Structure prediction request, 227 residues.
Amino acid sequence: METKTALLELRKRLGLSQEEMAERLFLTRQAVSRWENGETTPSIDTLKMISKTFDVSISSLLGVDSNRLCMFKQDDFNFSYRVAGVLIRDGMVLLQRPDNTDEYAFPGGVVRFGETAAEALIRRWKQETGIKINVGGLKWVEEALFLLDNKPCQQVSLNYIITLNDDDILVDGHRMLTYNEDDENAVRLYWIPLGDVGVLKVYPENTAELLLQEDAPPKHITRFEDI
Prediction:
């Protein structure tokens, strides 16, 4: 379910008009109308306000059905199918980093059942940044084994070159909060100069080399930690 549909269904379930919903959120009716038409997506702060005001989860507002994610949790290990986007602009690359670590990665997320990798990437970037992207060629495939929440996780990740659908630079600085809310687990997006990538802890570990190989065919990378 798309965010616009989730918001429309929420309003109808509450028996509110667009104007009444807007008044509850201290916004304009036009803002609510644009959400429901899919012209815009609420910011993270607005999503939090909607969640608190109407007692609904942010996940439900984003249309995320956890039962359809390609993340399989077993008693002693997990498996996930992930897709990520490589956005390079004005000599910088956009990376994500949780507040509780110094490790960077490329923004993306787990694919939902029935989605293509490109569809999943477009959905995830819109959820996290509120913007639309164009998906280009496959840059690399990574197979990884690492600890996630104190449990081994094996992951297959497809990483694509992406471009913006317009001239929006995303952030007027170097950071932006993604839709992941709260505390130390919050994930932020950072514009990192390409020359600094090699001195930061970025996954995959050979990211700096990969980014320099503009016209190279897709790479296959393995990263199996000793766990």
Summary: The chain is about 25% helix and 35% strand. Helices lie at 3-14, 18-24, 29-37, 44-54, 58-61, 117-129, 207-212. The mean pLDDT is 84.
